[in-house]
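#lab-general

N.A. 3:47 PM
ok so I finally got the sequence cleaned up, no stray characters, all 772 residues accounted for. can someone with queue access submit it? mine expired

B.Y. 3:52 PM
send it over

N.A. 3:53 PM
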Amino acid sequence: MGLKNLSVMGGFDLYIKNNLHKALHNNEISDTQFNNAQKIISDYKTSAIPDRKKKLFELRKVLTGVKENTTLKPSKAVKTSIDIKIKSAQKMSLESDIQYAKGVGPQLSLKMKVLGINTIRDLLYYFPRRYEDRSNLTAIANTMDGAFETVKGRVHDKRELRLRKGLTATKVTIDDGTGFAVLTWFNQPYKSKSIPMGTFIYASGKVEKKFGETQIQNPEIELANEEENLHTARIVPVYPSTENLSQRTLRKIIKSAVENYSHLVSENLPEEIVLKYDFMPVQKTLQEIHYPSSAGEKVKAEARLIYEEFFLMQLAILSLRKNRTLQSRSHSYIIDKKLIEEFEANLPFKFTSAQKRVIYEILMELAGSYPMSRLVQGDVGSGKTIVAAAIIYVTVKSGYQGAIMAPTEILAEQHYKKFRQYLEPYGINVGLFTGSLTKKEREALKESLKTGEINVAVGTHALIQEGIEFKNLAFCVVDEQHKFGVMQRTELQKKGNNADLLVMTATPIPRTLSLILYGDLSISVIDELPPNRQEIKSFFRPLKKIDTVYSFIKEEIKKGRQAYIVCSLIDESDKIEAKAALAHAEELKSGIFSDIKVSVLHGKMKAQEKEEIMENFRKHGSDILISTTVIEVGVDVPNATVMVILNAERFGLAQLHQLRGRVGRGSEQSYCFFSGEIKSQESRNRLETMVSSSDGFVIAEKDLELRGPGDFCGTRQHGIPELKLADLIRDRKILEIARKDAENIIASNTDFVKKLKYNGEISNSESSGMIH
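B.Y. 4:20 PM
back already:
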């Protein structure tokens, strides 16, 4: 990182000082080395970059005893030589480069790094993808045609056959007293040399009974007199691999690593947890997960590791929440029920009981002493925005500013209009900040925000740009949180002094997923729709019957209504998607909708053009909007009553539910038609779920079950850690148990949490929002 002293929490110099004490305590360095190293590193933090580089060279000399060229840029050959000498002199650790592991070396390490195996720790935690049970020996006479069998026999005969040019067969016949088996390999003449006559061997593979023989092609074999069997006569691990790295090589290296380095792994679980669930020790766990002594021991090892993944993840998330409670809020709100009643009195509707409950949950947390971080989940149309407006009203009445950040200009402007409608009657000034502002407009708004003339700022990520200053920002709202990274959310909070944060999402999150995505936040759920909202009637229509749907749209338009048609090739590029939407629009405009006003919206348009088209549709300048999925989030056109989604089988349930939520936003009955071709049972299940249910949480659970967490939120950059063994669906009960245990540990065993943080087992990367 360019010697910026940012690579570890507290600075690299603090990391070194801590480890010097550890090394001295463990007799890994002498008193002289310790004192000299302490002296070198003492003023590292205040040294210039070139001086830091010199200090690191000096430090490495002191700790390794290697004579080293101290020029700032040693030649590549010298540097390689130095690094090899240093590594050979160092004691191996879990963070040692994989090339120094026993049996690896420089060439093999390159192949392993392709698999993400960079260190000894990575190697120990590179778990099998599956197992093959080769522990049960079968007599050759009892083998079954087509079955995968393991046999043991004495080498009776060896032959090399030339079948044709470029193709040879190596045949080895073994005898176990009950019969003969012919083992065959193609173009592998070295096999014969590695199997001496008269030797007993194990062979595992698929049996073929033909030509009066028992044959096994390309079997996995092992000499029966080898000290320990790795590849046969046991439960054998099968690892994710690459073309140039064989299973045999991986097994040997990992077996060696388990034997030589598993003692370096420290216990990650508190003693009371290990005793409570009778977990095997961590070293034995690693042995059993890689080379199980029995099926039962493998299951025990898996159970412990699955629990450990969830437990450490939840511990990290809950630590973030606890750290937040240790911060102090510099501002205080007027927490008065009358303010909410005053705000509600001028609305054209009444709050639902769910909205009232969530408002008071937020107010109670705002009455506390530490900054709030809360997620509000609510299905499309449940009224999250008015809840946020009510709290912003309290914020401004308490003498502070509020901010609302949305992912797109269309959504930001929609919020701007709503917040003006709700707040300006009270003399509250609302400003809109987007990337399309002119320089003059932006400068004027910035000045008004800085002086406090603007009470509420609504905008896109333009709100967090450098130069945007608030007079006294106290409350931040982030809409559609999964569209933003943690850094963007944090940057908005930094515009105030420990500002309170409310994040909103219209994507219902299953509980198991919310414990991971938003586990550090308090969660409120608006689980009730306003009384004037009618349930959207949903239907499936095959593409060949789409004209009947278009005829229905024409009937609705005659009643003065509007319609969306979502036309998207979601597996293709934006450019192709835009062309598809345009082509389909032209086809419809010149055909069945030739007498109707049709507009088109797609992701390749400029922001201003999209906004103009959307605003025109909102004002009923067109009757049908043919769009790609750009209209998925937040667009509000109460007069639109029909949604048609073409090729619906290509979308996930969560996305289909979001799209459907663009209609049904007024008091008129609305309809959604899913059209496509059902090519698989999974597609059928998805579409049947959509037609039969309008409950976003039911749909979200089903989507998680069908597609997994990575697809549910689009990509892993949205914050979901990669789980090595645990599965959110299969292991949801274990997640719940681990969560409760982590809560208890956070509350009662602070020494254990501190130890984990010190050892680097828990860390939080703000740049990605991932828990490692």
